[in-house]
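call fold(seq) -> tokens
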Amino acid sequence: MSEESISSINVADEMSKSFLDYSMSVIISRALPDARDGLKPSQRRILYAMHHDLSLTPAKPHLKCARIVGETMGKYHPHGDSAIYTTLVNMAQPWTMRERLIDGQGNFGSVEGDAAAAMRYTEARMAALGSAMMTDIEKETVDHHVTYDENSVEPDVLPAAFPNLLVNGGTGIAVGMATNIPAHNLGEVIDGVCARIDRPSISIEEMKEHIKGPDFATACEIRGFKGIDSYFRTGRGSVKMRGTMEVEENASGTSTITIRQVPHGVNRAVLQQRIAELVREKVLTDISGMRDLSDEETRIEITLKRDARPQVVVNQLYKLTAMETSFGVNMLAIHERRPKQLSLMDAIDAFIEHRRDVVVRRTRFLLKKAEDRAENLEAFLLALGHLDDFIKIIRESRNRDEAREKLKAYTFEVATAERLGVLIRSQPSIEGDRYVFTDRQVNAILELRLYQLTAMEQDKIKGEYDAVIEEIKDLMDILEKESRVLEIIKTELLEVKEKHATPRRCPILPDEGEIAIEDLIANEGMIVTLSHRGYVKRTPASEYRVQGRGGKGVRGMETRNAADPDENDFVEQLFSVQAHDYLMFFTNTGRVYVERVYEIPEASRASKGRSIKNVLNLQPEETIASMLRLERRTDDDGNDITFSEDQGYVLFATRSGKVKKTSLHDFRNYRKDGIIAIKLEEGNELIGVRLTTGKDEVILVTRQGMSLRFPEEQSRSMGRATAGVAGIKPVEGDYVVSLSLVSEDATLLVASENGIGKRTAFEEYRSQSRGGKGIITMKVGEKTGEVVGAVSVAEEDELMLMTSGGQSIRIRVSEVRTAGRNTMGVKLLTLKKGERLQDIARVIPDEDSEDAGEVDEAGAAEPPEPEAESSEE
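ret:
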């Protein structure tokens, strides 16, 4: 080797690159299943070899597994024969696969962990559902690629006539990631897929009516619903499994515990060894004997001592042995050539999209075949219509080539062809008004047999031609209509369900003590506050008393920073909610976190609360910019439909004047770590978020008292990761402070930092096109200070006011005089020296609200202030 061919490399870079290549190969080509057919490459290659090379359909005799392994290894999978055989065995074990893909004959192991016999002793063929995975593969429904030795081709994915990923699940360990997908009931999954096709907006709660949860290959109890809900939404969760035990009292006075089922994946022999160890170690002291009477069904009898308490022993077995265990769900699969965490809806959508592609490609294949056949049949009909001419041409030709050339030169009028019943569907070649045969048609004419010249055969050809034409029309209609493609997917799935669906094996039961937490919590009115320094709390609304307008208020929150007495905190956001409602926390980075109100720490009115970082999984440097209350909604059956498709939109407004509308349904898959809600430009921030119907009118108010009212329809619905469009364009130095929705039965209450406020009818705000500068809503000046907020209020509402010093006052809206748009208003509360009004919020009045003017020791009611002067436009 010459020195010129030697180059220096960085060992660390080379190792990094090589390991990355290796890890991607393991992830993509070995360990993780494909989201479309639910198979790993080794499984796919075994099934393809059995179908394509060995024709081992369910109707064929079994074949030695050694032959199957050899065919797979020699043509498609250049790895060890033991690894291939192990994969084949797993696909044939009824306790491993919920729906077997391979029908095995011989010793394929046992549920106790016994190994299968050597491949030279066992035989196999495809099971019915294994064959369904290959349906229509010969009709160009999937892509193929060359094999490792470039001597053949293999499919990238199988057509998969049923959603195998969910039905059989799968496990795998790659480099830096792993997958663990539970099995589900075939009938339930097909019902779920059909429901998703019928209603693309179906919610998780509605999907649970079809897909109840996992349904493992071996029967056991599934306990609890929380883990199922978690992995349905996010692809990750923990499902608790329990075996079943029966207690019988014997004639001798002793009791026997009979284990009838063990959790999926638990080895019965290992379970018995564990019980024996606990007895020897004197942990289980009430067991006197144990024997295994299992055959195909589990039956392990445990004899108890005479004075033993059976239920205590049952609880000990659940606690100390694998009679109760968990299945950690991690639905990771290859989707679009990369690993992806799939929720239940993601997995269903991936299958539907795959089947749509399969049906379309199959239809195109059949259409091409039908058109080719129609082309030949056209030639037959035209030749039979000019039979004498064609016989003369052929008889006068010296050989086949001369006859072919003469037939190609033979033309006739198109109208003549149409009179013979030929639609000229394929239009092989038309020159002007003359019909010219193609090479395919000439060859078909030359291959006509003499018996096909009979009248009966001519009628038969015409009948076949008409049928092919109808088939072509039908196939083209399928390609033109998405609805027909989806209907075909449903029909084929329901056929699979009718033939192969079995009853559920694993009942899903509430976990012991599991009960919906909202059933234990009274749905009482709450006040939720969030301070500038990020302290959050909820306080019963009854702790805030109604006071007269102009009062000094009561202490609402202890906001002084103990570490730095000179730095005061203040309340930034305040909401009146119910305990069962949802709260959406929108951050300065444009993310959103969702919590139930009862999950917010409860604290007294004077308490500081708890840091929001201890409540939400906020990212570093992330702070709360806005909050939104979602009233919990349920259907007639009590199911939560808060995030359903028809529950409205989330409307955003930013400091710069931009607005954005996003469907509430887009936030259904919220996570503890938050999801993207809006894309914010540098320097911009959220100032308001509202829940809308999609047909509301919006009004934006700026710091300097300008406002703009426009119809919500002017802002189209956008995805979560978008920035929005212009709502109002504030002048330089001004910015938006409030977002409200217009209601004809309400008024717009505007408040300024000096405690001045007023109510104005919405009819005084004319509707404008979004993107303008707006009109005056409050005459601001030195006496009023700048606007701090604006809310839509009704006559019977109450208002909560919060100051920068932490003082709070609750007043009736009816006490605030209605005034014109371009006026100052009246004094809402008396502020201490140096204080400013910080925030206002509409409060739902309590039935037991105390009389106006009643206060506690923190402040005394004062007489109302006179109305501030107004100024006309």
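Residues 425-430, 560-567, 846-873 have pLDDT under 50 and may be disordered.
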